[in-house]
Design a protein that fits this description.
The protein is mainly beta and 282 residues long. It folds into 2 domains: 131 residues, Elongation Factor Tu (Ef-tu), domain 3; 137 residues, Sandwich (Jelly Rolls), CATH 2.60.120. The chain is 5% helix and 47% strand. Strands 1, 2, 3, 6, 7, 8, 9, 10 and 25 form a 9-stranded antiparallel β-sheet that branches. It is globular and about 75 Å long. The two termini are 13 Å apart.
Length: 282
Amino acid sequence: MQVNEIIEYTNAVGVTYRFIGLVSVEGLGDVEADIQQQSAPFQDGSTYIDAMLAPRYVGIEFIIRGTDYADIRSKRSAIGSKLNPKLGLGTLRYISGTTTRVIDAIAESVPFYPDGDARGERWQRGTLTFVCPNPYWRSLDVIEEPTFKPLFQFPFEGVFEMGEQRDERIITNQGDAPAPLYIEFYGPAVNPVITNTTTAEYIRVNQTLAEGDFMRIDTTDGRKSVEFVAPDGTATNVFNWIDLGSTFFKLAVGDNEIAYSADSDIQGAIVNITYSNRYTAV
C-alpha cells in the first residue's frame, strides 16, 4: 500500500469514514470474468460469445489507534455504525494523487476485529470486505456536453451569452467499458431524438416539449428511467413516451458521433449529456 493512497466509504445516509490506519487493500484490479462460449455438433473447441465481469470484492485491513482501550472500544462501535450493511449501498472512494475513482459498494459484514496479537491497549487491527455489484470504477467528475458551445460573454447584468449551436458532436469515452448516459432534453422541441450514429442507436421522445419543459433520461442498467419535469418542478414517469425503436444506449469505448434533431426548429432547444468513464482497475 502506497503512502499517497486513501480509501474512504460514504454510506447510504451520507456519512463518510476514512480508513486512516490503512494497512492493505485488495481488489483494486482483480475481478473474475465469465467467458461465455458455445459449441456446435462436431465443432473443435468452441466459439467465443462474450465476457461478463463478476462483482468486485475489495478487502481492507486497517488499524484503529486510541488513547486507551475504552477509546478503542468506542471507535470500533462508531465504525460499525458507519459501515453497517443494513444501510444499503454506499460509495467506496479511492484517492491517489490527482486521481479519484468511485464505485458503489456495501460491506459484506460488520468489521472483523481479531483477538490475541491483533490488538493492544491502544490499538486494534480490523478487516473488512466490500462487495461491489457493478465491478467498474467510475471517474468522480462527470462530463457534461452542452448543446451550445460558449464563445464569449458580455459583462451585462444577469446572464447573457452568445455561442454556436452544436447539433452534432464527438464524445470520447476514455474508459474501459461502455458508459451509461444521463440525458436532459429542454424545450421547445417536437419529438426530439438523440442518435449515436457510431452505433446506429437512438432515443426518440414522441412528445412536444414546450419552452420551460424538460425531460431526463437515465440509461444506467438497473436505473433506466424517463421522467418529464413540468415548470413547477413536478416529475412524472413517462416511459410510454419513448419510441418503440429506441435503445437506452451507452457511449461505446472511444469516439462516439452524437447527433440531436427534432420534428421542428431546435433553435433554443438544449440537450445536456452527462456521463462518467468506467474502469476495470485503478
